[in-house]
Design a protein that fits this description.
The structure is a single chain. By secondary structure, this protein is α/β, with parallel strands linked by helices. About 35% of the residues lie in helices and about 10% in strands. The longest helix has 18 residues. The N and C termini lie far apart (about 160 Å).
């Protein structure tokens, strides 16, 4: 009579030393040493080598353990030679670089590189172009003739008024000239057309000049203190006057007028260097001394735009015109 045999215990899979080290690293040594349930253990598929440098944790190392057969012990890999160029690195190289250098995700081909780093590409020739220093307006116009001066005014960027203009208004009239008429600054129509004193103000000025036998086609050159229109027709700022005044002074030096008729308070104060009111400046003859030492008579009168708003002042403007025409 045979005795009942005890139920056979499940056999613990045999593992070799290398497998034990891997299981310890991923924290599965104790779990693996327990008897497995009847169901087959899942097989972990090895990871393919990555094509891009990535950061790989130790627990994601590719490990394959079969049910009963021990894993063969792989020979120790030979030391890898330094890579000649940066490229894709296997997972083992990336992990080794992490353990040796504490820099996860950096391929060994970069960490083990010898020699100087790659030189940066040279800059293009246009990147090294340095803007030429801006020449002050007074120096730029010093030896300019009238045509060159006109081109400089049209291309001027000496102040912020150039940003909002349509046209820079150089001036218009007879050359040589007998009278130089100086206004304040271009208005909307002047900025649009590029000529001084157009529209209703220009028509009134032409009628005033015709009354004393003058015209802009044969006797008079008309210009302004400021060559670009200020926004909203405001008075120009001191820095705008300083930037633009050399153009006017060069015009005076080139045109050599017999007399200057200044229209408006702002133009009179700028040209004569005073803050007196126009009422105290008109009705008498002033003098402007040029850089060449010549003295030119200056007569001050009201601006035509003001006369359109205040027709009663036209009588005083007529007196100013007669004063200018009587001068020899």
């Amino acid at each position: 009579m045979s005795l009942p045999t005890a139920a056979a215990k499940p056999a613990v899979p045999r593992i070799n030393p290398l497998q034990r080290i891997w299981l310890r690293e991923i924290g599965m040594e104790r779990l693996w040493m327990r008897p497995a349930p009847a169901a087959a253990r899942p097989v972990v598929v090895p990871q393919a080598p990555v094509s891009e440098p990535v950061s790989v944790p130790d627990a994601m190392l590719a490990v394959v353990v079969q049910d009963t057969a021990p894993l063969p012990v792989a020979p120790a890999p030979a030391p890898a030679a330094p890579a000649a160029s940066a490229g894709a690195a296997p997972v083992a190289e990336i992990v080794a670089s992490k353990r040796a250098n504490g820099r996860p995700g950096i391929p060994a081909s970069i960490l083990n590189r010898t020699g100087p780093p790659p030189r940066p590409e040279p800059k293009a020739a246009e990147d090294d172009v340095v803007e030429a220093p801006r020449i002050p307006v007074a120096e730029a116009v010093k030896n300019a003739n009238l045509d060159e001066l006109r081109e400089q005014v049209v291309a001027c960027t000496a102040c912020g008024l150039c940003d909002g203009r349509r046209h820079a208004v150089f001036g218009q009239g007879a050359t040589p000239t007998r009278w130089l008429v100086v206004g304040e600054a271009p208005g909307e129509q002047e900025d649009r057309q590029g000529h001084p004193f157009v529209g209703r103000s220009g028509q009134l000025l032409d009628a005033m000049l015709a009354a004393v036998g003058m015209s802009r086609e044969t006797d008079v050159f008309i210009t302004n203190v400021i060559k670009c229109r200020p926004p909203g027709n405001r008075n120009p700022k001191p820095e705008e006057i300083a930037a633009c005044s050399p153009y006017l002074m060069r015009q005076i030096a080139l045109l050599k007028p017999e007399r200057i008729l200044v229209l408006g308070r702002f133009a009179a104060q700028t040209l004569l260097g005073t803050d007196a009111t126009i009422g105290s400046l008109r009705g008498r003859v002033h003098s402007l001394k040029t850089d060449e030492g010549a003295e030119i008579p200056v007569i001050v009168s009201y601006h035509p735009a003001y006369l359109l708003r205040s027709p009663s002042e036209k009588a005083r403007a007529w007196q100013d015109l007669k004063l200018a025409s009587r001068m020899v």
